[in-house]
Structure formats: C-alpha cells, structure tokens
From TrEMBL, chain A:
<keyword id="KW-0067">ATP-binding</keyword>
<keyword id="KW-0547">Nucleotide-binding</keyword>
<protein>
    <submittedName>
        <fullName>ATP-binding cassette domain-containing protein</fullName>
    </submittedName>
</protein>
<keyword id="KW-1003">Cell membrane</keyword>
<dbReference type="Pfam" id="PF13732">
    <property type="entry name" value="DrrA1-3_C"/>
</dbReference>
<dbReference type="InterPro" id="IPR005894">
    <property type="entry name" value="DrrA"/>
</dbReference>
<dbReference type="GO" id="GO:0005524">
    <property type="term" value="F:ATP binding"/>
</dbReference>
<feature type="domain" description="ABC transporter">
    <location>
        <begin position="7"/>
        <end position="237"/>
    </location>
</feature>
<dbReference type="Pfam" id="PF00005">
    <property type="entry name" value="ABC_tran"/>
</dbReference>
Automatic annotation (TrEMBL), chain B:
<feature type="domain" description="ABC transmembrane type-2">
    <location>
        <begin position="30"/>
        <end position="257"/>
    </location>
</feature>
<dbReference type="InterPro" id="IPR000412">
    <property type="entry name" value="ABC_2_transport"/>
</dbReference>
<feature type="transmembrane region" description="Helical">
    <location>
        <begin position="141"/>
        <end position="169"/>
    </location>
</feature>
<feature type="transmembrane region" description="Helical">
    <location>
        <begin position="116"/>
        <end position="134"/>
    </location>
</feature>
<keyword id="KW-0813">Transport</keyword>
<keyword id="KW-0472">Membrane</keyword>
<protein>
    <recommendedName>
        <fullName>Transport permease protein</fullName>
    </recommendedName>
</protein>
<feature type="transmembrane region" description="Helical">
    <location>
        <begin position="232"/>
        <end position="254"/>
    </location>
</feature>
<feature type="transmembrane region" description="Helical">
    <location>
        <begin position="32"/>
        <end position="55"/>
    </location>
</feature>
Length: 311, 258
C-alpha cells in the first residue's frame, strides 16, 4: 500500500487582476519530509503557502492535505496542520499564556486539557518566566517561539512555517533551527518558505526554487548544487604585470570560464582534478600567487543562477 | 502522544472569542474611554446649553434628551465594533483564526458579544449622568432598566451593520469617518434633541423616515407609561430582523476576503 503524501499541489495558479503571481505550480511533499520553498522577495512563496493553508483561494488547480482537498474538505484539512505566518499571528494585546489558552480552546481542547497543554508548551519553548507579561515587551525571538508554540498545540502532523527566521539575530535563528530540527525528529512534516539559502541547506530535505510565480527547479540541496556545478578557485596574482600572462595561460591550457578583476582571478573548475596541473603550470611560468581559496558551490550560487529577482 | 480534541462548536468558539476580546479590554481599559466621556459630555453640553431654549429649563428638557443621547451613544459604541474588526483583520492574528478548524462566524460574533460590555457601560453612564442632572422618570427603576436593555439590544443589532462595513472597508480610518457621519446624521436628523413638530415640513418627513426616531420614541414611551408599548415591540422585531439579515452577510463578507 502506498503512503499518502502530506501535501499534493497540482497545477496551482493564482492571478491578482491580470498579473499571474503563481503560475501552474505542482509538487508533492512526502510524510516526514522537510520541504523548502526558496525564492527571492515577491516570488510567490507566501501566496503558494496561503493557498495551501486555505487562507487564499486559487484561480485553478488544487491542494490536498493528507489526501483531503482544501476546497471541498476545508475544515478537515485545516484540522491537520499548524501554521506560523510571516507576521506574528498571535494576539499582541494579551499575554503568552492567554494566547496559548485561547488557541487551545479554539482548537477544541477542553478547559483542563488547554491548561495542561499551555503549561507544557510554555515549558518547552522557555517562555515560563514571561508567560504573563504583555506581548508588547517580547523580543522578536520570543514572539516567534510563542507563534510556533501556538501552531503546535494540537501536535499537527504537518507544520507550515512562513519565513520562520526572517528578522531574527543569528543566535535566535540557530535556536529556531534547533527547534525545527527537533520537530522533524519527532516525525512531523514541515513545509517552510525562506529566502535564506543557508536555512534551506540546513533544514530542508528537498527544495523547490520559485521565481516569478513559477517553479524553476526541485531537488535535494546536493542535486541543486551539482546542477550549478563546478568548484570555484580564487587567487590573487602578486605582480600586476603578470596578470595577463596568467589569464592567457589558464585560457590556453584549461577550457574553463575565467573572471578577472584587477589582480583577482576566479576560475570555474570542471573537476577538482584540474587543480594540481593548473598550479603546476602557474609555477612553471614563475607566476607568484596568494590568497588561494577553493570553494564548493553553495546554494547562493544556485539562487543567483536560477532566479532573476524582481529588481 | 495525541492531543485530545473534539470539533469545536459554534457556541464554544464564540464564547472563547468573546473571552479573548474581553481580555483585550481588561488589558487596555482605555478602550472604554469613548463610551464614558462622550455621553457625559453631550449630556452636559446639550442639557445646559439648549435646555432653556427648547423646554424652558434644563429639568423639563431631560425627558427628551436622556433617551436621545442614550441612543446616540449606542450608535457610536456600535460603530466602534466596525473599526475594531477592521483593525483586527489587518493584524496577523486573523490569519490564524481563519486557518483553524472553527466556526467562521465565531471571531465576528465573539467581538460583538464582548462589545455588549461597552454598550452596558455607555448606558449606565448615560442614565447616571441624567439622574445626577435631575432626571426622574415617572415609570420607576424597573422600567428604566427595561428601557436600558432595549437601548443595548438596539445598539447590538446595529453593531452587526457596522461589522459588515468594517469587513468591506479598506481600512479602519475609512470605517471611523463613515461611522462619524452616520452617527451624526442619524442622531441629529431625528427627534433625539428636539420635538419634531418644530421642524419644517421637509425636515419632518426626513425625521420620520429615520429609524432612530422610532427607537427613541419607544424608549420615551416606556419611561413615560411604565409599559411595553406597541412601538417598543416594533423596535424589538426590527432589531431581530437586522441581526438575521446582517449576521449572514458579515460571514459572507468575511469568507469573500479569501
């Protein structure tokens, strides 16, 4: 028997007026997977997420959550996921404890269960000491933690996170990552949108790159990096009059792309094996180099390579 | 471990949402200032400024003006619900309400039920100010309470209209300015402050077309006769009618935003 997918998105399209913001997007997310929607600002990530979470109606196409159509069985589908929005979707005017209590009750928990779950979550997300303080005095990290805690009240099997670490400092961001990893370890399926490549690299099993409303590439971080391909080699030529000689030499002997900026030279190697002969030829030509670095492709390269961006 | 849940029902969801709105008010009591200051201000200003001119003296004017300002205050308190809903919708928290498996009318109904507290406070302030200025209705305390309840019910029914407006409007400022215009024209183009007889023929027609005139008349009759008159029953039926029409419309508008 085949296991049903956590999310099935097929031919999803959304138009705002004449502008198509999501254009025929299809993908599946398997149970237990961390799936990243990666793209620049305005690419349509949040719009896709809002359609998956029933907040926005699509013009065509459909979304199934654990096999349940979000349009035909909206209420059932909604009971199966938790959502943490891009802007803190918690109540600013009341305390953390009150937020958790109210959302527990709205999720259908009894009063005593709500109380128990609230205390558990306050504990789990280290919010006990500030549980009764006004949210206005909360830091960005505390807000996000509370937001996530609220999404986890019913221990949903599927969690949507819309840019979970945007605007957080590096420390709270790492904490957030740890929390998400813990959720995954407990068996939750996570779909997150992000514009940070290191975040997608750190967390996601598979990534869909979105740009201008279209799904451009889908694959594991490794696959995407391989696609861009090539190790990049950077070095500085010490003597300025040797730069031209060096560029010519590399061009003649190795069939690779080369960028030159003053004395800085950047070479895309097809294979790492090319490195040694290249350095040997440079030495034979008596060219002195410094600041040598070798870089594996990062998701940044994937991002730059695949997306055009709005600006 | 699974968390025990059951499908939330309409009443439970609405109660929770009303509780949420009450909590908001408790954390920020400034929200009550408008429904306290406005009736006191109007009562003093109109009473002492126009009492002599319209009714010979302040005391004779009070039976006219107390029900008038009471209903005017209900209108303005009801319109507050509309801008409150708009503000709430623009904050991120409504996204979560929408993504929860709960009754769609609950966030709106919760707000309007919690706002009954505002209406009660406004009514008590209004009637107390009148009493302190020398207002002594013949019908007695019991009927004062009845007239207060009728005013609160009317205000609550009207708040559904403003809730719809709040959902359809672009932003809270639009709702507020529209509310102010409605409140002003409905209360001044009625019998709230003056006997309709003193108006020109055209103005009389307008005042008699204004539903607020009938609400105020009903309350004056209760206070004068100590009985539920024909007019009062009409207001009750009309109020139910408004809720029956506007509650489904607000839910429609709420869903339409998707």
């Amino acid at each position: 028997m085949s296991v049903i997918n956590a999310i099935e998105v097929s031919h999803l399209t959304k138009k705002f007026g004449i502008k198509t913001v999501v254009d025929d997007v299809s993908f599946n997310v398997k149970q237990g997977e961390v799936f990243g929607l990666l793209g620049p600002n305005g690419a349509g990530k949040t719009t896709i997420l809002r359609m998956m979470t029933t907040l926005l109606r699509s013009n065509s196409g459909n979304v199934k959550i654990f096999g349940h159509d979000t349009l035909k069985e909206g209420r059932l589908a909604r009971s199966m996921f938790g959502l943490t929005g891009q802007y803190a979707s918690i109540d600013e005017d009341i305390s953390a404890r009150e937020n958790l209590m109210i959302f527990s009750r709205l999720n259908g928990l009894s009063r005593s269960n709500s109380k128990r779950r609230t205390n558990e979550l306050l504990e789990e997300f280290s919010l006990v000491t500030s549980a009764d303080k006004a949210l206005k005095n909360f830091s960005g990290g505390m807000r996000r933690r509370l937001d996530l805690a609220v999404s986890l009240i019913t221990r949903p099997a599927l969690i949507f996170l819309d840019e979970p670490t945007t605007g957080l400092d590096p420390r709270t961001r790492t904490q957030m990552w740890d929390t998400i990893k813990k959720l995954v370890a407990q068996g939750s399926t996570v779909l997150l949108t992000t514009q940070y490549l290191d975040e997608a690299d750190q967390l996601a099993d598979r990534i869909a790159v979105i740009d201008h409303g279209k799904l451009i590439k889908i694959g594991t971080p490794t696959e995407l990096k391989q696609q861009v391909g090539g190790t990049s080699l950077n070095f500085t030529v010490k003597e300025i009059d040797q730069v031209d000689t060096a560029v010519k030499l590399v061009k003649d002997e190795f069939d690779t792309s080369i960028h030159q900026n003053d004395q800085q030279i950047n070479i895309k190697l097809k294979k790492i094996d090319q490195l040694t002969p290249l350095l040997v030829s440079l030495q034979r030509a008596k060219i002195t180099i410094s600041n040598l670095t070798v870089q594996e492709p990062s998701l940044d390269d994937v991002f730059m390579d695949l997306t055009v961006g709005k600006n | 471990m699974d968390v025990q849940t059951h499908r939330g029902n309409l009443i439970m969801n609405t109660t929770t949402m009303a509780y949420r709105n009450l909590l908001k008010t408790i954390h920020d009591p400034d929200r009550f200032m408008d429904v306290i200051i406005q009736p006191i201000m109007f009562m003093l200003m109109f009473g002492y400024l126009f009492g002599g001119a319209i009714a010979g003296n302040v005391k004779n004017y009070l039976p006219t003006i107390v029900p008038g300002i009471l209903i005017q205050t209900m209108l303005s308190a009801a319109s507050g619900s509309g801008s409150q809903i708009r503000e709430d919708l623009d904050s991120g928290v409504f996204d979560r309400f929408k993504s929860l498996p709960m009754a769609h009318i609950a966030p709106l109904a919760g707000q309007l039920f919690a706002d009954i507290l505002r209406l009660v406070i406004a009514t008590v302030t209004c009637l107390t100010t009148g009493y302190l200025m020398g207002w002594r209705p013949v019908a007695g305390f019991g009927w004062i309470v009845v007239s207060g309840l009728l005013a609160i019910f009317t205000g609550w029914a009207i708040s559904w209209i403003f809730a719809l407006l709040g959902l359809l409007a672009k932003n809270a400022t639009t709702v507020q300015s529209f509310s102010l215009i409605t409140m002003m024209s409905l209360s001044f183009l009625s019998n709230a402050f003056i006997p309709i007889k003193t108006l020109s023929k055209t103005m009389q027609v307008i005042a008699y077309m204004n539903p607020i005139t009938y609400v105020i008349t009903a309350i004056r009759q209760i206070l004068a006769t100590g009985s539920l008159t024909h007019e009062a029953l009409l207001v009750l039926i009309f109020g139910f009618g408004i809720v029956m029409i506007f509650a489904p419309l607000t839910v429609w508008a709420y869903d339409r935003n998707n």
